């Protein structure tokens, strides 16, 4: 039963029937959903979700990589409530602004790396990446090099689901629907050592994967390249943590050719890696930084693009009007929640705690799972990690039918009261940054039980 006072009280079966009748879900096979019925999550507290039957589930994914402060934070709800009464909506077009958006831009300038003093607000990470494409191309027009339009990204990247976001992303199933990518976006290989590194050491492979950028620049013509975009750690692609050699080599290449570097911080930003931003963890210096998700701890939708001084100066001083913006660019209530989120991250020292305390504890316990017969690699930075499931650890062998064992494991996790995602046969977690050691122990215990169940079930079905 739902406990929300303003919603009708319905049984799980009633919610499921209404859902099946009316609701088209994102990234969902509706035939498969129809057979199973949707899982209805009706409330949450701290690091736990509760479904419509009252079952408690430990949230190993922070919602969708966003609820970094956990559920039920009064300060965030109060910030939204107070702002909605004070000024629920106004825009920042046509030479106006409002205090929450101005205050948030000030706070972001403080917490982001020193090259950033400016932000453009959006309603989501996808809109942030559309803004990236428009800003980058506008920048090169204003620089007198309008032929620089090509943006280089990577296979298996995720940058959102709008036309530009999905095009920047390197997800083959997304490109297969509706004629993507849009022109002027190309992809190079990803730095995924476990799957693609062969006999190379991770360090050697990191350099090889980075050099693919130089090869692509030379193939297309350096004078046509506008920018390179990458997630510091690929999230939706399977928590792909690049070898330590990768990002420094990428930085050298973008510097040598004078192209812009875009670090998509939508997942890695706001403490996930134990630094404020993933680009700080890897020591790179981006020119543009799309942000969203953890910016408001997911309590209200908001995103933005941090724009480094050298680009911001051109866009704002040379440019005349930048013909771009959204109704909800800098929505007052979302900005108020983002301000409150940043204040909590700072006042409670949460980023430092991820770096020095709970992050290392989780990493240590996570790596213990590598001794399980199904686990080929257990990797983690800060509080974002992956397990590679395999039938043959030594050779990093894939299963015959990709994704089946991962799905078994994901279902076993849910049966054990844990949300852990499967990307093909890679299990991924990104739990709330506010987890205690007891929560971490619970996560690891549940994950191990799910791995045991997966092994047993997989063998029974002849999949392993
Ligand atoms: N960039 C990155 C790196 C992301 O992870 C976006 C941009 C787009 O943000 P919006 O707010 O438009 O969704 C994302 C979003 C998954 C999954 O299956 C990941 C995302 C969204 C939905 C599903 O892991 N990431």
Structural account:
With 464 residues, the protein is an alpha/beta fold. Helices cover 42% and strands 15% of the residues. It contains 18 helices and 15 strands. A four-stranded mixed β-sheet has the order 1-2-3-13. Strands 6-5-7-8 form a four-stranded parallel β-sheet, sandwiched between helices. It has a four-stranded antiparallel β-sheet with strand order 11-12-15-14, covered by helices on one side. Helix 4 packs antiparallel against helix 14. The two termini are 39 Å apart. 3-[O-phosphonopyridoxyl]--amino-benzoic acid binds at residues 64, 124-126, 129, 158-160, 165, 231, 235-236, 264, 266-267, 292, 303. The site of 3-[O-phosphonopyridoxyl]--amino-benzoic acid has 17 residues, from helix 6.
**Rg, nearest Å:** 22 Å
Q: In the CATH scheme, what's the topology name of the largest domain?
A: Aspartate Aminotransferase, domain 2
Number of strands: 15
Strand coverage percent: 15-25%
Structural class by sheet pairing and helices: alpha/beta
**Total number of helices:** 18
CA-CA gap between termini = 39 Å
Topology:
Layout: H1 12-22, H2 30-36, E1 41-45, E2 48-51, E3 56-59, H3 62-65, H4 74-86, H5 99-111, E4 116-122, H6 125-142, E5 150-154, H7 163-168, H8 172-175, E6 185-188, H9 193-196, H10 202-220, E7 225-230, H11 246-257, E8 260-263, H12 278-282, E9 288-291, E10 303-308, H13 309-318, H14 332-347, H15 350-356, H16 358-368, E11 375-381, E12 384-389, H17 404-415, E13 418-419, E14 421-423, E15 426-429, H18 437-460
Parallel strand pairs: 3-13, 5-6, 5-7, 7-8
Antiparallel strand pairs: 1-2, 2-3, 4-10, 9-10, 11-12, 12-15, 14-15
